[in-house]
User: Which sequence fits this backbone?
């Protein structure tokens, strides 16, 4: 790989550019770990980076997968925590969630908020409110909405959310 391409990939790594997801993987020589370009971990120096087109190439070069960005999993895969919370909301859509409910599930409130914001672009509570209204007004099933590309793909969710916030 030429130095111009290395510098280009390195800049994408520093910027955590999502457009490069799946285009390349970076192996960090000092740690022996390889990551996605969007990994939240601290960025290495350019001289400690080795770039690969596939995860398989990185594995064959004796790099192990990063535990933070999980380069061997699908980039849009939902975390276990988010799936656990989605299942809980589906089971009881009319429930009003409190900090005690999160504690009973062994989930930190700020972690739930952050994970939902990262995955769906809204907090758990905002998502819960929209889900409840969507069930009431449109009789949607949450799984069907998710299967068409995520919560934000449903225009009804956004419309309801905007309406709810202005009331």
Assistant:
């Amino acid at each position: 790989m030429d130095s111009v391409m290395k510098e280009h990939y390195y800049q994408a790594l520093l910027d955590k550019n999502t457009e490069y997801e799946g285009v390349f993987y970076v192996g960090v020589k000092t740690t022996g770990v390889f990551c996605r370009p969007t990994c939240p971990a601290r960025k290495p120096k350019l001289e400690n980076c080795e770039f690969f087109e596939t995860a398989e190439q990185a594995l064959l070069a004796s790099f192990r997968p990063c535990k933070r960005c999980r380069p061997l999993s699908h980039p849009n895969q939902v975390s276990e925590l988010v799936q656990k919370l989605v299942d809980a909301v589906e089971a009881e859509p009319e429930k009003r969630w409190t900090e005690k409910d999160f504690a009973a599930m062994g989930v930190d409130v700020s972690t739930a908020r952050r994970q939902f914001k990262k995955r769906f672009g809204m907090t758990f509570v905002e998502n819960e409110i929209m889900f409840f209204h969507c069930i009431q007004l449109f009789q949607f099933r949450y799984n069907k909405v998710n299967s068409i590309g995520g919560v934000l793909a449903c225009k009804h969710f956004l419309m309801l959310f905007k309406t709810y916030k202005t009331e």
Strands lie at 25-28, 33-35, 49-52, 64-65. Helices lie at 3-15, 55-60, 80-91, 99-104, 109-120, 124-138, 142-147, 155-166. The domain at 3-65 is CATH 3.40.10.10 (DNA Methylphosphotriester Repair Domain). Residues 93 and 132 are 6 Å apart (CA to CA).
